[in-house]
Design a protein that fits this description.
Largest sheet: 8 strands, parallel, barrel
Shape: globular
Distance between the termini: 37 Å
Structural class: alpha/beta
Strand order of the largest sheet: 1-2-3-4-5-6-7-8
């Protein structure tokens, strides 16, 4: 496989839904254009932000197809990554095979999300089977232990898996343990290349990038890409105070996202609400999550307005 590397910001996309809970596939094209206008040219589809575990296999396949079509239109997206993990290994294999047939840039996989894997050997074997279904497509493991309850050492995973997963390129690292992330950055693949580590905790991106993270995959890059583009540019200019100011803005936003998300079962309902606030309505969420009530929604909007979000998000 040729050298493959991701850097910069990758938006973890929401899945547009209609009021009845059906996927609104027709909205994906407009959503893609919105992200392009925001300066985003890479997306991560069917992940946590995309409510992947709440979608059927058929829905996930069609969502992938729509994003590939939308992304290729006017070359709006340079890379489309697809998350294929879920509850059933056979479904994950089918999703990986389908993603490769659509020509996506890379696939990524959670571990099984109901019966947790507890040993390194079992995790590597699981990922090997998923990756083998897309033998020409780069593979990234999705490490998010707060959701999966699988918290094995990722540097050990990379060093164990590199000889049995030829397509392994790195990790979507959604964990606040930056020491372990550094160990991942120091690991090498079977060709002696550094693994591609993409950070997934937006509110501490600055620290991860300073330590060497290659790029980032996250939900807030849908809402406030401008803030993070400035953060990365300021870091490249060694302007640490300026970059920190942008990071603090993101933290102020995320604090409100979580505050109101506590009322709804998580930050996805509040994240989708923000999308409507900024001009790209992607609809409600699926149960067991619930959308904000009208009074909660109004209060949330006013809170974001009070911290200046709508001025500095661009």
């Amino acid at each position: 496989m040729e050298e493959f590397h991701i850097s910069g910001l990758v938006a973890a996309t929401f899945t547009p839904l209609k009021a009845n809970g059906d996927i609104d596939y027709d909205k994906i094209d407009d959503y893609c254009q919105f992200l392009s206008n925001e300066g985003i040219s890479q997306v991560y589809v069917n992940g946590s932000t995309g409510e992947g575990p709440s979608l059927t296999t058929e829905e996930r396949m069609k969502t992938t197809e729509c994003w590939v079509k939308a992304g290729r239109k006017n070359s709006r997206m340079s890379k489309i990554l697809v998350q294929v993990g879920g509850t059933t290994l056979r479904d994950s294999i089918a999703l990986a095979r389908h993603a490769e047939s659509e020509g996506v840039a890379a696939i990524s996989s959670l571990p099984p999300i109901y019966f947790p894997i507890s040993t390194m050997g079992d995790l590597v074997e699981y990922c090997r089977q998923v990756a083998a279904a897309a033998p020409s497509t780069p593979f990234y493991y999705y490490h998010i232990p707060a959701m999966t309850r699988v918290n094995l050492d990722m540097a050990t995973f990379l060093e164990t898996a590199r000889d049995v997963i030829p397509t392994l390129r790195g990790v979507k690292y959604s964990h606040q343990d930056l020491v372990q992330m550094c160990h991942c950055l120091r690991s090498r693949d079977r060709h002696g290349r550094a693994f591609n580590i993409l950070y997934g905790c937006d509110e501490q991106l600055m620290a991860a990038v300073v330590l060497g993270a290659d790029g980032a995959i996250g939900s807030t890059y849908n809402h406030m890409a401008g803030t993070f583009h400035r953060l990365l540019a300021l870091l490249s200019q060694s302007d640490l105070p300026g970059a920190l100011a942008e990071q603090h803005r993101s933290q102020d936003f995320v604090q409100q996202l979580y505050r109101y998300g506590a009322k709804t079962g998580g930050s996805l309902p509040t994240g989708k609400a923000v999308m409507s606030f900024v001009g790209c309505d992607v609809g409600p969420v699926r149960p067991p999550l619930r959308s904000l009530q009208p009074d909660e929604r109004s209060e949330f909007y006013e809170r974001l307005k009070s911290i200046g979000f709508f001025e500095w998000r661009k």
